[in-house]
Amino acid sequence: MFDLLNFRPHNLLHCVHAQYKFENDWEISVVAGPPNCGLYGNLNDGTYEVAIIRPNGNMTDDVNGWNTKQEVSAMMWVLAQL
User: Fold this and answer.
1) What CA–CA distance (Å, rounded) separates 4 from 72?
2) How far is Cα 41 from Cα 14, in angstroms, rounded to an integer?
3) What is the domain partition of the chain in residue ranges?
């Protein structure tokens, strides 16, 4: 499911961001950047920081960092099932 994400430049230099809204109105926000950019994802290592947004627009607890593409895909699959 990772392939559904359309990464664009983030407002932080050399970082990327993708957001995907599922049919059930849950959303996933995925970001990454170079080492020491302040995000919990490193493009060089292929890891990503993930935020989950509820249908009411509120983010769940906190971001989840250092996820692989496979882990992001698994989260996306679960969100699609809700």
Assistant:
1) 11
2) 12
3) 2-81
- Residues composing the chain: 82
Tell me the torsion sign for CA atoms 33, 39, 51, 27.
negative
Residues 69 and 60: their CA atoms lie apart, in Å, by 20
pLDDT tens, N- to C-terminus, the chain (82 residues): 999 999 999 999 999 999 999 999 999 999 999 999 999 999 999 999 999 999 999 999 899 999 999 999 999 999 999 9
Instruction: Report the chain's terminal Cα–Cα distance, integer Å.
Output: 15
How far is 27 from 45, CA to CA, in rounded Å? Answer: 24
The predicted structure's pLDDT at residue 62: 93
Sheet order of strands, 8-9 included: 8-9, 16-21, 27-32, 48-53, 64-67
Position 38 scores a pLDDT of 95
